[in-house]
Amino acid sequence: MLSLLGIIAIVIFAIHTFRSANSNGRNGGLWAFISVAVGIALQWVVPLVASMVIAIFYIASGSNIDTIEQDIMWPAVVISFAGLGLSFLGMWLVLRHVSQIPDEEPLTASGPPPPPVFGDSLSFRAEEPHEVAPRPKPEGADLPPNRD
Question: What is the distance between the alpha carbons of residues 91 and 3, in angstroms, rounded to a whole number?
């Protein structure tokens, strides 16, 4: 029953993490994977390793190997509930981090303008100063006017 609740929690947190990450411009698949990994690690891997360490400690302290399962029953239950609680906490922290809107990068707002592109257009802009080539004068333009 406890691990069924844990599986349901992992699936629900993964779906919400995926949606929150995508809506905030993050990689949804990666963050959902991180949420699932945190859930599995804190729900099954850490309690399994902790239970094995306790079992080895009981055997090393001189307990009977035949009764080891009964001896560590209550510590294993406590470890399972602690793992489930830590799993909820870890997945919630991942979801909380993903739900925050990332800050704008200041590099996009400042910086030098892009370099000019040459050869695209031969037209000049109105705000750019440019020299006009002198026109040749028509024939007879430098003669004085005829005043008859």
Answer: 16
Q: What is the 3-state secondary structure (H, E, C) of 42-107?
A: HHHHHHHHHHHHHHHHHHHCCCCHHHHHHHCHHHHHHHHHHHHHHHHHHHHHHHHHHHCCCCCCHH
- What six digits make up the tokens of 72? 């560590």
Percent of the chain with pLDDT over 70: 83
Q: Is the pLDDT of residue 81 over 70?
A: yes
pTM of the model: 0.64
| Residue position matching structure tokens 């994977």 | 33
More confident residue, 92 or 127: 92
Burial class of residue 20 in the structure, from the number of CB atoms within 10 Å of its CB (0-12 exposed, 13-18 middle, 19+ buried): buried
pLDDT tens, 106-116?
Answer: 555 567 777 77
- Type of residue found at 8: I
What are the structural domain ranges in the chain? 2-101
How many helices (H) and strands (E) in the chain? 6, 0
Crossing angle between the packed helical segments 73-99 and 28-40, to the nearest 10 degrees: 160
Given a cut of 60, is residue 44 above it in pLDDT?
yes
